[in-house]
């Protein structure tokens, strides 16, 4: 979420310089602009004319390869064009999105229905698909607006009195379509062989019940046009390898571990030698975990690695800085009244930066130039020297913040809301790993604990921010160690859930430093799944709460896992 500022600005100048000649060759952009203008004019003659509309198109090509225990499972290629219109009727002060997230009927489990448009530039077919979706969304907009107007005269007003929508600069930005080299950068046959080789390593241990490897390469070209005059075409690429193995203990506890590698271009991924060495280390750790003791409930000090604390901050801190949540009285609004106050130790800062292309040697999954409301993304200094400064804002304003800072995000079919992109935690008091370990043991002794905990890797987590349930979090660690105060060797444990409440946890952070970790993934929330990255140094926490993870109903397999027979008669 940061650097490469010089490169980015140069690229922008080039893109704007050639935009006139290139855009003339982009038929889809012309169709979107023309159709938006026409439908805005036609709907303007109705009883409820829109005061604002935009169209979003995502043109995505996905290559996905999967292998298990040395055998290819699947290798697929899929290309789609999804279309999402947003229609706002009423006024900036009060419209059909008043307290609503999506401008279309949404299933709790399935989300909104996705509208796909033709992948060829056949104008009539594209216009037909657009017309159908806009017609449906306009009807839903009118129905929602009438209900909201009626309810506004009956129900108690919300605490936040800001308008439902704010103005924004309408920008024109154009990137060339992908080159053939970029579109074909993923050699499926090559990755099929790589994944078979990686996953075959799991055959070396008979106790492993799942051993998989997957690779994906996605190219996405996003279009955005609005009734205000915005015209944006932007590209993104992402390549990822994900490797996972799992064992099951005699008492039925499932023990998963995984590895993840990310780069914009397949050439940026690690070598085969590096990945295979990591897989062998993962297998050794799984075997050690299989006979490791299960954790008991615990409260006390802990040390989180950079990767683990990155997930911790994303789940527990980051979601509570997404500004659109402050608009809804149903949300817990943990930080709404804490602008200008200390929320982290004085030597900690946190910022979210979608313009950050690379950090600490890692490509950043949350990188983009423009958000899904056509607003240029920018770095937001959420916390500076421990003090809360600002929230991640969309064009939905709050009483405290009236303008977007480019953090409106959504996946296909959804309308955008405030979301994280590249969250970076930094400390000005950078301790070494050894110093943090000594302080951890010192704190454990002060609390009269026999041991403390070190969280090395995690797989993710979830948090609840609404008022209808306790504001809590649950982070799922994978590799956890007991650190004994009397000098005994560190002990690997299993079956850990890290739980708690946010304000209590934040107040327990003592120090930070050590190796910086980068966690790359996707985050699911009200506007679907979006790519994110979280980077943080290791952190020392005065008190965490652990509970034992629930066990699977399954026990170890009755039959031995199939393997190559030593009897030549059976070949």
Observed structural traits:
alpha+beta; single chain; 571 residues; disordered C terminus; 6-stranded mixed beta sheet
What does this structure look like?
- The protein is α+β, with helices and mostly antiparallel strands and 571 residues long.
- It has 10 helices and 22 strands.
- Strands 1, 2, 3, 4, 5 and 6 form a 6-stranded mixed sheet that branches.
- A hairpin with a 2-residue loop joins strand 9 and strand 10.
- Helix 3 packs across helix 4 and helix 6 packs parallel to helix 7.
- The longest helix has 30 residues.
- The termini are far apart.
- The N terminus and C terminus are likely disordered.
Task: Chart the SSEs and their pairings.
Elements (H helix, E strand, L loop, with lengths): L4 H13 L1 H5 L3 H17 L6 E19 L2 E19 L33 H30 L19 E3 L5 H4 L4 H13 L9 E17 L4 E18 L5 E10 L8 H19 L7 E7 L1 H12 L30 E5 L5 E2 L2 E2 L16 E5 L2 E2 L19 E2 L7 E2 L3 E6 L2 E2 L1 H14 L4 E13 L9 E12 L6 E3 L2 E5 L1 H5 L2 E17 L2 E21 L23
Parallel strand pairs: 3-5, 7-17, 15-22, 16-21
Antiparallel strand pairs: 1-2, 1-4, 4-5, 5-6, 7-22, 8-11, 8-15, 9-10, 11-12, 13-14, 17-18, 18-19, 18-20, 20-22, 21-22
Helix pairs in contact: 3-4, 6-7
